[in-house]
Every structure is written in structure tokens, then in C-alpha cells.
Amino acid sequence: MMPFNYARARDPADAVRLAAGRTEARFLGGGTNLVDLMRESVEVPKTLIDVTELSQEITARDDGSLLIGAGVKNTTIAADRRVRERFPLLARAILSGASGQIRNMATVGGNIMQRTRCYYFYDESARCNKRTPGAGCDAIDGFNRIHAILGASPACVATHPSDMCVALAALDASVHTVSATGHRTLKLADLHRLPGDTPHIETELAPGELITAVGIPPCSFATRSVYRKVRDRASYAFALVSVAAALDLTDNGTVRDVRIALGGVAHKPWRAEKAEAALRGGQATEASFQLAADAELKEARGLRHNAFKIELARRTLVACLAELSRRDEK
Ligand SMILES: Cc1cc2nc3c(=O)[nH]c(=O)nc-3n(C[C@H](O)[C@H](O)[C@H](O)COP(=O)(O)OP(=O)(O)OC[C@H]3O[C@@H](n4cnc5c(N)ncnc54)[C@H](O)[C@@H]3O)c2cc1C
């Protein structure tokens, strides 16, 4: 590991000031991803700006929305009564990830900004356009079992690894930030980018832009929701495919509204808008779930080792919708 400076930010403005003009600086959350990357020399920041003390509150509003500070630990969110009651899929998504010890350290901001788990990104001897722009991608013709089936490019087939972000994408969450140019709010679903020709630019955040909080708008039917994660081991493994879904049904079984996001399939948490559009206003039946999955996965493309994910995503999505349609809560 290379030597680096360490500074603890007093407040968000202090964090932004410490980061200003230092492209080689990184914000430090729980360090559960960043420090691993520093050990592998994939990340070599000259300055770490500790932001763990910032924004540790979860604020619940009467309209049903929540504002979660970027410094709140993953464990705290998953255990929060208001989160579990209003947005149970978020608690389930977080609890399906990592381990108890890691969730105790990991922050909301760090979870959102965690880097891909593509093996070639971590392996300094491999070619990786994300690590070294223009170097090439050894995953495309290599062992690509965990890689993307949607939205990939000839430059990069990596996936975004977060479970929490998949639930947040389904919940229409927003990300609040501050930078030298002021405050702004982005939709979480628009924060992460598809790889295109620039897979090293992973989000819409500018260098030195700090995430301060995540806002979740009211969603009355999120009580009828699910997060299902399919992986190689029952715990301590990243998703091959995951589905976050919430379903709002009328008394006669028509889909009034629906939210779906997929994980493990793309360079970003994948909001399944085509599937949602196919379902809205129709009857909730196994046949309509199949058609919705087909609509979403029509453009999915498999590589040598991951083509199974297309069928896996289809079956997992259909199974989640079927499970939700059988639940009797309103
Ligand atoms: C063995 C293992 C298994 C795991 N399994 C899973 C899993 O199954 N599912 C899953 O979702 N995750 C999993 N994880 C990943 C884990 O969730 C992340 O490491 C964690 O969420 C990162 O949070 P952190 O606070 O430690 O981030 P850090 O490591 O501190 O930071 C990560 C990145 O975020 C940036 N950052 C931090 N805070 C901010 C901020 N406020 N604003 C802007 N940028 C910021 C940092 O600069 C860095 O680039 C696993 C990790 C490990 C080590």
C-alpha cells in the first residue's frame, strides 16, 4: 500500500473543501471496499477524507418518505423500524449482502459508490479499461460468469455489485450531494452510468462531489414487496441475479402500479421500466409476468459463461411477481 494523508471532515462543507482540486483524494466511508482496493493498488489515493461522522440520521416524514444520511451504517438502516415497515425490500436487500461485520462498517454513501467485483478489475496483471482506460478488457473473452447481460459495451462487461442500490432504484430514491458548485439531487437510477467507451467514469458525480443523503419518496404499496437474490452461496456472495419488486393490485387483480429493478445484470442497478410498462393496467397472471420479463430481457446478451443469467433473470422476476400477487396484503 502506498503512503497517504488522512483528514477527518468536520461537516460536508469541510469534506468538499478538503477534496477541492485534489483529484487523487477519496472520501472514506467504512473503508470495506476502498481499503481493499488500496491493498491491491487498484486505488492509490494520496489523501483519504474520512466522512464517517457526517449525516448519521434517518429522518421519517409524515408523508411516508425517509431521508437517510450518507454516513448511516448499513446495519442501522436494515434494523430501523420505519425502514422495515415502509420499505421492507430495502431492509431485505441490505441483509442479503456481505456479512454482519461488514454491514456494521459500511455506510450508505460507500455502498452506493462501491466498485465492481469484476475479477479482472482487481487483478493488476489483467487488462481492464475501467482500471486503465484504453488497456482492453480481459473479461470479454475470459471467465465472465458474473458479468453483465444488459447495457454492456465492447469496452466493459462489469456489473454493479450493490444489493441496497437495487432496492433503492425500485423505490425511486434520490441522492443528495454537495460539491464546490453547490447542492444537487439526482435520481439514484440516473447516478450510475452504463460503460460505453468510458467505463472508468462510473457515476454522474464530479470529482470531489460528496453524497450527503438518500431520499426515498412515499410508496404505499412497498409493503407488498420482495428482494430476491440468487447467488452461488447462501451467504457472503454477490448476486448473480437479484430482483427488487413491489406490486400494487386492485381488488380484481389488475396491476395498478409496479416497481421492478434488477441487480447483477448490468453496470448499474437496472430499473426494469419495460417490464413495468408491460404490466401496468393488465391482469396479474403468470402469462403477463412472462411477457413482462420477455419485454425487459429482449435485448439481453450473454457471453461465453454467463448466458444462463438471461433465463435466471427471467425466472427470478416471474417468481417474484407471482409471489407478490399471491400475498393478501393491500
Ligand atoms: C467480503 C465482502 C462481501 C461483500 N458482499 C456484498 C454483497 O453481497 N452485496 C453488497 O451489496 N455489497 C457487498 N459487499 C460490499 C460492501 O457492501 C461495500 O464494501 C460497502 O457497502 C462499502 O461501504 P463503505 O462505507 O465501507 O465504503 P468505502 O469502502 O469507504 O468507500 C467505497 C467508495 O465510496 C466512496 N465514498 C464513500 N462515502 C462517500 C460519500 N459520502 N460520497 C461519495 N463517495 C463516497 C469512496 O471514496 C469509495 O470510492 C461486500 C464486501 C466484502 C468485503
Question: Care to give the gist of this entry?
Answer:
The protein is of the alpha+beta class. Helices cover 30% and strands 19% of the residues.
How would you characterize the overall build of this protein?
With 330 residues, the protein is an alpha+beta fold. Among the domains are: 5-52, Uridine Diphospho-n-acetylenolpyruvylglucosamine Reductase, domain 2 (2-Layer Sandwich), CATH 3.30.43; 228-326, 2-Layer Sandwich (Enolase-like, domain 1), CATH 3.30.390. It is built from 13 helices and twelve strands. The strands form three sheets. It has a five-stranded antiparallel sheet. α11 (273-279) runs antiparallel to α12 (286-297) and α12 (286-297) packs antiparallel against α13 (308-326). The longest helix has 19 residues, at 308-326. It is globular, with a radius of gyration of 20 Å. The mean pLDDT is 96. The site of flavin-adenine dinucleotide (FAD) has 31 residues, from β2, α2, α6, α7 and β8.
Index terms:
binds flavin-adenine dinucleotide, 13 helices, 4-stranded antiparallel beta sheet, 5-stranded antiparallel beta sheet, 30% helix, Uridine Diphospho-n-acetylenolpyruvylglucosamine Reductase, domain 2, alpha+beta, globular, Enolase-like, domain 1, 330 residues
Architecture blueprint of SSEs:
Blueprint: E1 5-8, H1 12-19, E2 25-28, H2 34-39, E3 47-50, E4 58-60, E5 66-69, H3 74-79, H4 81-86, H5 88-95, H6 100-105, H7 108-113, H8 119-122, H9 164-170, E6 174-179, E7 182-187, H10 188-191, E8 210-216, E9 225-230, E10 241-249, E11 255-263, E12 270-271, H11 273-279, H12 286-297, H13 308-326
Parallel strand pairs: 1-3, 2-3
Antiparallel strand pairs: 4-5, 5-8, 6-7, 6-8, 9-10, 10-11, 11-12
Helix pairs in contact: 5-9, 11-12, 12-13
Bound molecules: flavin-adenine dinucleotide (FAD).
